[in-house]
Amino acid sequence: MYTAGIDAHTSYLVVAVVGKDGGLEEKGRVRVEQPEKLDALLGRYRPLEVVVETSSAWPWLWDRLEPQGITFVLAHAKRLRYIARATYKSDEVDAELLARMHLAGLIPAVHVKAGEQRDWARLVRHRARLVRDRTAWVNRMHGQLHQAGLRTRRGHLLTRKGAKWLRTEAWPQLSGEQRRILRTYRALIRELQPRIRALDQRIEAVARQIPAALLLQTVPGIGPYRSLLIAAETLPITRFASPAKLVSYAGLAPVTRSSGGRTRHGPIPGGANRWLRGALVRSVVSHLRHAPESWLSHYYTEQKSRLGWQVARVATARKLCRALHAMLRTGEVWRNEQPDTETGELHPSHAATTAQDTD
To answer: Range of 285's domain?
Structure first.
């Protein structure tokens, strides 16, 4: 068995191949526009495992190498502290260290999403970035209004009433330069709005074709966007052996450190899946509006009175995560019944299977 470490960049790759005994077999540099040279270099070594760090370059490498029978290992870049702390650092050193670390069993591997699932993630992340841009422009509009002593609630400027208020009440109190600035932001937002609406329609159409996404939408507060995001980040659910594994992956379990007979619980880990964590926490907020009398909403209320709203949201997102694990594993729709706290099992008397009910 051979192991190849690939240090991937936007324009070139650095490859280092080591043998089973750890000896360096070959090093090489390949231009991205010459993938056939990569095939020729790696083709001399079989069986072969290839290690690549998470970056924008890994998807095309997986698409090219996996059909050739090469085992593809995706390494968690943030956890590769050995490379980050190396005294002498170069592309060649990084590639060789990747290979040797994998040979020693030190690579923190990441699940490789299938091609279709990567497209789901691209779709929802593209929408999230456009919404983030729109929010930034609206916030800058608020900044100009604040300088003139004017205030209005968040989101109001995106409505027709808000546009009328800006035109009739705020406009006369603004300077000429401020008006020109606000016109620029309004033009950018008007250009972006139809694109976001088109993305929403596309997301809804894609989510309709995915049974897991339809299942997730039975939870009050989870619509097509969040259901597609959760499906993109968690499927297949069988890779999470227990609800606790999914909770940890979502970054909703506090860091625990035990030493000298003492156990300390720290903050939420920063290296977890931030997309999934954000979707679950925001789903809690939506759920409270749509189902204020559910068991999940009651749990939030109890935690809020003890710990405050910020900690309560994360704790409730952790409960929701356990429930979603049970739903995705069993195919059972949402019911207003709390899963078992240890196993995540939904109570059978309140369960229904979508696979049978919807056909």
So the answer is: 213-357
pLDDT digits (tens, 9 = 90+) for 150-175: 999 989 999 999 999 999 999 999 99
Q: Are residues 84 and 119 in the same domain?
A: no
Distance CA 310, CA 316 (A): 10
Question: What is the Cα–Cα distance from 189 to 196, expressed in whole angstroms?
Answer: 10
- Which residues share a beta bridge with 110? 74
Q: Which two tokens stand for residue 157?
A: 């400027």
pLDDT digits 0-9 by tens, 264-286: 556 666 668 999 999 999 999 99
Q: Cβ(28)–Cβ(21) under 8 Å? A: no
The set of long-range contacts for 58-61, using a CB threshold of 8 Å and a minimum separation of 24, is 58/8, 59/118, 61/6, 61/8, 61/13
Domain shared by 237 and 346, yes or no? yes
190 and 143 in a common domain: yes
CA distances from 187 to 144, 170, 178, 191, 345 (A): 16, 17, 14, 6, 51
